Amino acid sequence: MLKILHIAPQNYAGVPYDFYRMHNQCGDNSRLVTLHKNRLDFPEDICLNLPLPNFPLAKEWRRKKVILREKEKQLKARFFKPKNIFEKIYFTYNDFSKKNIVEEAIERYNLDEFDIIHYDAGLDFYRDSSQAIRWKKQGKKIVCCYYGSDLRIRGLIKELNDISDLNITSEYDHLSMKEDLSYLFYPYDPSELPSRSEIENEIITIVHSPTNRKYKGTELIISVIEKIKKEKKLNFILLENLSRSVVLEAKSKADISIDQVGGSMGGTGYGKAGLETLAMGIPTITNMTDEYREWLPENPFVVANGANGLYLKLNELIEDKKLREELAINGKKWVMKYHGYESVNARLKELYKLNNII
Asked: Which of 152, 201, 213, 297 has the greatest number of C-beta atoms within 10 Å?
C-alpha cells in the first residue's frame, strides 16, 4: 500500500480531491492538504484555512500578471521570479507567517509518514520550497502536477522543479511548454452527479459555468447566444458564483453545455465543467486546436472555435435531437473509459514505475 500526500493551494474544481479519493478507493493511503478554502464549497480533507488576499490591490496585481503574460506570448514555461522588491518581501513574509500553522499540521496529521508527495499546481507550502527540500532529503519522492494557469501565468518554481521525480499535467498545451511533462487524464467519479431530468424541455436549455470569464471566453459566448435568440427560442443559463450543488442541479436540466470557446490564457480543450456535463449525458461544446482534436482519443466533444464556429455548432445541436442523443451516450461512456478512477490510477502507477518512484 502506497502512502501518497497531496498538497494544493486550493481544491481547484475538486480535482485534487478526486486524486485523493482515487488513491484511497484503489487501495492506497492518501491525504489532501489545501492551504486555502475553495470559495465554491468543493469538499476538503485537511484545509489549513490560510487567508487568501482578496482585497482590491491583490486582485489588480493578479489581473496585471495575466495581462503581462498575454503580451509576452511565451510558448515555454519560465521560472517564477518576484517582479520587484515589494513582491519579494510579500512572499518572504507570507512564508514566515504560515510557518507555525504548517508545522503544526505536519505533526498533527503525521504528514512525515507519507512516501510520495504530490504538489498540485507545482507549489510547496512555502514559495522557497523549503518543506519539499526537507522531505526530498528524507528520501521521499516528489511529484508535480500542473493544472492550468500555474504554468501559463506563474511559471515553474525552480527549487521544486529541480527535485521533482515526476512531472504530470492534465492540460494538452502544457506538453509543449515543458519537455519532461507526462500527460494524465485527471480522475473523476460521476457518482456525485444528480440524476439528469428525464422531462424533455419545451425550449432548448443551454448552460455555461465559468470560474473565470476571460479564460472561458464568456463574453463571446453571450454575444453568440444573443444572436441566436433573435432567430429562435432558447433558454440560456449562466452559472456563476453559486454553490456546487446548485450548479450541478441546474446542469442536470440542460440540453447543451458550453465549456469554453475562444478564451484567453485558459488554453484549449476542456475542464471539470465540461467533464461533468459529458458524464451527465449532455452534449458539450469546447474549443480545440486541430492538433489537440486529433490527439484526444475518441474525442467526444463538439468542437467550436471562435464566434462563427460556436454559432454553427449551436444551431446544429439545437435542430438535431438525434445528434444530441448520440453525443449523450458516447460522452458518458468516454468519461468512464478515460477519466474513471481505475483507468487513471493504473496509468499513474505506470508513470511511478517508469520514474523509479515505486
From this structure: 152
Strand partners, 31: 5
The CATH code of the domain at 191-339 is 3.40.50.2000
Identical fold, 3-189+341-354 and 191-339: yes
pLDDT of 225 reads 94
DSSP three-state, residue 7? strand
| pLDDT number for residue 267 | 58
Number of H helices, E strands in the chain: 14, 12
- Around 67, how many Cα atoms within 13 Å sit in the side-chain half-sphere? 6
pLDDT of residue 341: 96
Distance CA 169, CA 151 (A): 10
Sheet holding 181-183, edge to edge: 46-47, 29-34, 3-8, 116-120, 141-146, 166-169, 181-183
Q: List average pLDDT for each run of 10 residues in the chain, which is 358 residues long.
A: 96 92 97 91 92 65 57 69 85 91 97 97 95 98 90 88 96 88 94 80 92 85 94 92 88 93 65 91 93 91 93 95 94 95 97 97
Determine contact, residues 271/246, Cβ cutoff 8 Å.
no
Place of cell 484511497: 24
Q: Which helix (H) or strand (E) holds 166?
A: strand 166-169
Domain boundary assignment for the chain? 3-189+341-354, 191-339
> What residue type is 74 in one-letter code?
Q
What CA–CA distance (Å, rounded) separates 119 from 146?
Answer: 9
3-189+341-354 CATH pick, 3.90.550.10, 3.30.559.10, 1.10.8.60, 3.40.50.2000: 3.40.50.2000
Nearest C-alpha neighbor of 40 from the set 257, 281, 242, 246: 242
Question: Rounded to an integer, what distance in angstroms lies between the CA atom of residue 143 and that of residue 352?
Answer: 9
Collapsing DSSP to helix, strand or coil, 168 comes out as strand
